[in-house]
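In this section we walk through a basic example: taking a raw amino acid sequence and producing a predicted 3D structure, encoded as discrete structure tokens. The instruction is simple. Fold the sequence below.
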Amino acid sequence: MAGRSVRAEQVRATREVIRNTAERLFAERGVHAVSNRQISEAAGQGNTAVVGYHFGTKADLVRAITRHHTARLERVIERLLAETGDSTELRDWVACLVRPTTEYLAELGSPTWFARFCAQVMADPALHEIVVDETLDATMWRQILDGLHRCLPDLPTVVRAERTAMTRQLILHMCAERERSLALGTPTPRASWHDAATGLVDAIVGVWTAPVTEGS
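The resulting token sequence is shown next.
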């Protein structure tokens, strides 16, 4: 029994180091630029087949990395939703979209790789849907968007869809850019993730309240 427990812990630890190493390499180099051999070597694993053994395909590995973070992100989202309640303030709902990621990245400490990992995966047509399926289509995200849309009932449906996409890109790439700067030790426009989130919320509220040109 004890032997089985030790073996299970060894497997868990091996999976964790592979997952963390893959996330870092994918974030820094891009998903398709990194081979299983490179991951196993960087993770200190002698067997080059160990990545496939524990995770299957590269898409399976990307999904495992995403799920690892999503489970923890959901706790932050739940808290922010509870705090927001039935607010009719647009800014509150935009903050619900922005702050889960920035608070989570702040909680992880520096360096982190999750924002850059997501940016790399979202730019890949073959892997894009994995992040969408695991995060952006979650019930809680839809609840936030519903609350946001209720604040702007007269906004045309096509404009809502367009500005939702703009919002996603701003959050994703601004977080990835800040994460990269922190990892490299280069200056950032804002002193903290909290302040960076405030700037993002300001900008995204501006996006949602921008005029809509008739007939465009």
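Looking at the output, two observations stand out. The chain has a mean pLDDT of 91. Residues 2-29 form the longest helix (28 residues). In the next section we compare this with other chains.
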